From TrEMBL:
It is an enzyme of class 2 (transferase). The keyword Transferase applies. One of its GO terms (cellular component) is cytoplasm. Residues 1-81 form the GST N-terminal domain. It comes from Caballeronia humi. This is glutathione transferase.
Amino acid sequence: MLIVHHLNNSRSQRVLWMLEELGVEYEIKRYQRDPKTMLAPAELRAVHPLGKSPIVTDDGMTIAESGAIIEYLVDRYGQGRFAPPPGVSPERVRYNYWMHYAEGSAMPPLLLKLVALRIGSAKMPFFVKPVARRIAATMQSSFIDPQLKLHFGYVEGELAKSEWFAGNEFSAADVQMSFPLEAASHRAGAKKLPHIRAFLERIHARPAYRRALERGGKYDFAD
């Protein structure tokens, strides 16, 4: 039986969604973030040395990284669904691009945004806090927010060309892109852009997405 090592409010939610789209039977082993640090618990290191979620175990294999997991699931269980045929078609090139863009380009500025926000609200000595807050505010205004604006504008323009990231058909690239856009909506106001907002509304309305939420539990980014 395929097992998803599922961390609350994390990228592993999109793995559950992919499995629901595929109709694959699976079990969930749940892990909770530390309420103070928001880090994954140490028990995950017994599954994979980095102790990060998502991780799946299937047929004696342990697979980490959400993009690698989703590609594995589609290759093994998709039966030609959820990915354009292999080759050099425009759809396949776009599919490959967005599968990598999600973590390689979209997530780094969102992570920096999260770090800057936490610096601003963190408990620290009174004589350190003003300096830390100024540094965090400068990071946001001079680099992080301009980068987010650049990426949001780019994604908005691409979604204006087609409903889905690889073209006119829903694919695993849309599953992979869901987390950065949900995080961007939650942390940085990306849902103000009409095509991004419409994309999020489309994916949140999918029956498989709703089933994954029911199985995965509380997931703040789906708001």
